[in-house]
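Input record (one chain):
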Amino acid sequence: MNTQGNVVEAHKAFAEKSERDLIAAVQQGDRKAYQTLYQTYIGQVYALCFRLTSDQALAEDAAQEVFIQLWRKIGNFKGDSKFSTWLHTVTSNITISYLRKQRGWWQRMFNIEDSEAMHHAAEQQTDLGDLEGYVARLPERARIVFVLHAIEGYRHEDIAKMMDMAVGSSKAQFHRAKHLLKEWMGYE
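The corresponding structure, as predicted from the sequence alone:
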């Protein structure tokens, strides 16, 4: 008899029940339960926000916006998927919307982020030799698509819907990101 496997399964079942109970309490307006939920997930939410924004201050603001919206919209969680999966999708959507509000849709439409000043600022901000530093240097749309597709595993069809762009544009931005990363890392 494998008692270790039984203990792991029991712990997993207890954790899932505890999380369901916690979410139910938050849905009922329990502020202490919400604080527990916040403390449990703030690290994951902030990490995704940072990967999408490539800016500490924007990531902090976006993460706070996620939790503000979470308090308002927790009733929309029906339990059809894991809470962490649902929260991941909510975080991605809110962060992308937050970026639109902060930087303006027109700026991205006309690729102002590709200006020489933006490239210089990105190089100043990240002289890191690691992949994360290079990803942070990518132009905003290319970075978001790269993070969502290559790191988070979203399909281009889903990214296109989230970012209100054509599927081909998502694929093109991903190709652009890969090309720039290869160039910066010395593989071209």
